[in-house]
From TrEMBL:
The chain crosses the membrane at residues 12-31, 37-61, 73-91, 103-120, 157-177. Residues 18-293 form the DUF1616 domain. InterPro entries: DUF1616, MFS_trans_sf, UCP018671. This is Conserved protein. SUPFAM superfamilies: MFS general substrate transporter (SSF103473).
Amino acid sequence: MRSHMAGNQKFPSDLLLVAGLVILTDIIVLIPVLNESFIRIVLGLLLVLFLPGYALVALLFPAKNGLEGVERAALSIGMSVAIVPLTGLALDNTSFGIREMPLLASLSVFIILACAGAYIRRKQLPEDKAFEVSFKKSASSIVEVLGKPESSTEKTLRAFLAISLLTLAGATAYVSIFPHQHDPFTEFYILGPEGKADNYTMEYVQGKSETVIIGIANHEHRTVNYTLDVRLENKSLALPENLKHIQLEDNKTLEEPLEITPSIRGKDLELQFLLFNETEKEIPYEDLRLWIDVIGEA
């Protein structure tokens, strides 16, 4: 009698395809020649709207009798919509922040690990019990989406899947036909001494230095010459040469520590961070403010 016990399965084709799409997306994003192509848009949408959820569903439901194909697809989209914002929230509490490369790396690692876990769980099941994807049957299931469902639950899931697929296709078509050109802008921010957008020093000692981190990200579609001015109660503070005049290429980010040494005492003193661009020298292009207390020397 032929054995159907676990341990003889090849790496499942669906998990192999998911892992391959993740790796392909990473390669295309990292190669400058390809990262503005239509392929990146399609793969990026898959990476955000489908693959994380599919990998997690595969991990949670390794058996055939767990979920049907249509239900898996619908749940994959819904879970992806939840996973991506949670990943962004986690990154926002780290020094990496919500940026393209950290988010890409986090999602890629999550999907690959979830696929590996799903493979291990399927391998522990008898071969005839482990979930597998027949792409021919999957195509037939999509065609049957508009057919009469067997239950109200199945009807809801199939309708959700159909709407999601249409939305995904429409979004892909729109972005490819009418690519959005972002308006030029500059990110200007300050971070605390630990490199996070919190834990700012709010109480200073007169004559004693404390550190903040100045951040500038150029998205102006050109190289820009910036001028930085830091003022305490409208009086300019001394700045190092590398922060007085800054030349920054397009899509480049500068983060540099700056020591603040207040020479006056008082409560609720206004500490201004003013960034000027090369076209306007009188009115700040971007500005940030902190209100600090400065006490006398101990």
